[in-house]
Amino acid sequence: EAGVTQSPTHLIKTRGQQATLRCSPISGHTSVYWYQQALGLGLQFLLWYDEGEERNRGNFPPRFSGRQFPNYSSELNVNALELEDSALYLCASILGGTYGYTFGSGTRLTVV
Amino acid sequence: ELKVEQNPLFLSMQEGKNYTIYCNYSTTSDRLYWYRQDPGKSLESLFVLLSNGAVKQEGRLMASLDTKARLSTLHITAAVHDLSATYFCAVVETNAGKSTFGDGTTLTVKP
Q: What confidence category does residue A41 fall into, taking pLDDT thresholds of 50, 70 and 90?
């Protein structure tokens, strides 16, 4: 069974540009979660998508947005990039409450 | 707002020693997870704790949950170098569909 896949692995952007990050959950998982992990810090909840709808978002500005497609894959878009957006962005899916999240390998975004 | 506090944040220990990492949280929850993260890597699920008094063990790691005290512990027995990593606890906010993570405990096991 394929795990959670994320692309690209690394992304370098210039301040003010837009970044698009992609995630495919494990087959059969309908929910996708996005987390941001800035260097040396913990994980901050960004977004939760389920069945194509945004169900909850964390305390991030509106320039962080995303969507979930009919095949349950998801995109995270970050507009007007700022230097502090540099972080590891992790996507996760979950089968049910008795299981933990399965995380993808992440996209490391660097804003210069 | 749910708050999750881990301590210690940094832990240096010698091989063969025992130690406990603590995870306190501020509101009731029915699920708590422990994860491991190696440098530059993603998170790996270690334990899922679902009820008061739950205890899970895998190798040299044992996790427990006391929902009344809002406390989970991750106990390390006879540490080995391979356990060096950052360990996170995460408390599930069921209706919010998200987990709130602690800041992580960076464990270094020295020979």
A: confident
d(CA B101, CA B91): 6
Return all residues near A24 (Cβ < 8 A) that are at least 6 apart. A2, A4, A5, A6, A71, A72, A73, A74
SS3 A75: strand
Contact yes or no for A98 and B42 at CB 8 A: no
d(CA A40, CA B43) in angstroms, rounded, equals 14
Question: Which B residues, 76 through 105, put their C-beta within 8 Å of a C-beta on chain A?
Answer: 88, 90, 92, 94, 96-104
Q: What would the two tokens of residue A30 be? A: 């309908």
CB–CB of B45 and A55 under 8 A?
A: no
- Mean residue pLDDT of chain A comes to 93
Q: What is the pLDDT of residues B59-85, one digit of tens each?
A: 999 999 999 999 999 999 999 999 999
Q: Which one-letter amino acid corresponds to residue A52?
A: G
Q: Do B95 and B67 form a contact (C-beta atoms < 8 A)? A: no
DSSP 3-state of B79? coil
Strands B71-76 and B19-25: antiparallel
Average pLDDT over residues A10-21: 98
